[in-house]
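ARCHIVE CARD
SHELF: 3
SLOT: left
DATA:
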Amino acid sequence: MNRPTGDIILSARNLGKQFAGFMAVSGVDLDVERGSIHALIGPNGAGKTTCFNLLTKFLQPSSGTIAFNGRDITSMEPADIARLGLIRSFQISAVFPRLTVLENVRVALQRRRGDSFDFWRSERVLADLDGRALALIADVGLGEFAHHTAGELSYGRKRALEIATTLALEPEMMLLDEPMAGMAQADVERITALIRRVAKDRTILMVEHNLSVVATLSNRITVLARGQVLAEGDYETVSRDPRVIEAYIGVGHG
């Protein structure tokens, strides 16, 4: 388990989003500590995805402010906050199915250098990136698949590749959007271990439905219901909160 520092890396105040008169998110205050794994959970329709899209700037808030490392990012674009080191995995880190695992990670490394799609560069120049790319591929457990095309990989291994391409962008903070969605149990265990490993020197905020994963990984959990913060704390605290229990049971399959 990571050890939070007490230093706030990402914060939101009075965050709100209205769609045609409907308040999908309302008055959300959120503080994510540097070095922590922070989970955003809640029953279906709780506003998790909207809140996540606001924090990652895929949606513009109707109200409130967002700060990253003390800098106001409320009006910034996703690409601009990515340059600051706040990177959303599984959205920004596209996987190209016809490229090999190595080529996918190399493209991400080129992107980090600012010459992302210079496919016309000499093979020697591109090969200079291979050492770092292969190290990242090994880090996510895909060493033996480096020369396989991404399209051949299992679903769980594609997710591991997406994490590798995100890591290539050198994020200070990673935002993971339902990293375990649609995975078989063996893949869930593999990606859980991977997230714990890559979180050792960075901060992670994730939206996740799998509560056993949340219990295993998270230092702190924010529970949303009807677009508002319902409870916050560690897993033991929120799992015993009567309001949280009612929110999940009250919506059936939550």
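SLOT: right
DATA:
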Amino acid sequence: MSDVPAELSGAGIIERIGSGQYPREVVETIARGFLPLPQDDLIAVLAFLTTSPDGEIATAAKTSLTDIPSRSLHGFASNETAPAEHLALLMRATDDPFILEALIRNRALPDALVAEVAAVADAAVQEIVVINQARILRAPEILDALLANPAVTADVRRRVMETREEFFDKKARAAAQEPVEVDDDQPMLTLSEEPIADLLEKAASEPGDAPPPALMESEKEDEKKLSIFSQILTMSVSDKVKLAFKGGKTERVILVRDHNKLVCSAVMRNPRMSELEVESIATMRNVEEEVLRIISMKREWSSKYSIALSLARNPKCPVGVVLSLINRLTLRDLKGLKDDKGVSDTVRSLARKMFLQRSHKA
């Protein structure tokens, strides 16, 4: 190895190899790992040689790189002071998920390279990329790269869509100050009752003396709500069902808390029910379980991450519904749920199990 000056760094040797200053036999010797360099420099040189057009040299370099202890490779991959170009070389040279995860988490690695890898990654690496929210927040184009990957898994695709909705789409809508649909808060008297025909049929045989929904303290000072509440007290179940379906926002916010399942179910069929209103209802602990179950069954609502999270956190939500939602939660929200004493032991236990599994993968 006398042709290789001892004082050269890994970057210097890579430059000389690339410019053809070393004869083939010297490069082959370097590829076999016989190079008196610090470990990090050696890793960079070997990673560079794995892409050599000379098959024998590339194979030798890959073998030598594999022979380096995993903890050393991981230490280099995690080193945020390492040259970005050297980290990039290792990224292209390894397929070890343990090393790739360290690289993807390393802030010194260019975001563009992670996006490049995401576009062709296998399932294991896709999982590593999609859970790194810190990098995705910095470089949302990584989500586009994952979606463009022909091998993207259904689970990763779902997580991409949820991440995009939670962290980007909502902010974009707020920034654009989208006009909010105006709810004139007046009953839609000409609305067909066909969508609630089944509820009205059942309501005809319901006694009208069921306890009314309770007003919250803040609502007792609202004259309009007090007036509507007074009217509701004298209504039959059938009339309340009609008002729940046709009424404006004030009627809905009162009747969704009605103890009669027919009435609160009619509220959820109201055509003016917005996603924002549904999200608010999903957090309520004074609604019937049936309301929360209806929300979970309507895909256009339950597919929204914020609504799914609100349901999962609501101790009134049926356990069976929550269990079907937990696997969609982010690591951060799983952490909160596993320690939430307000939810059932079953929910906390599953959240804890999934948190540990995800943490181990991460």
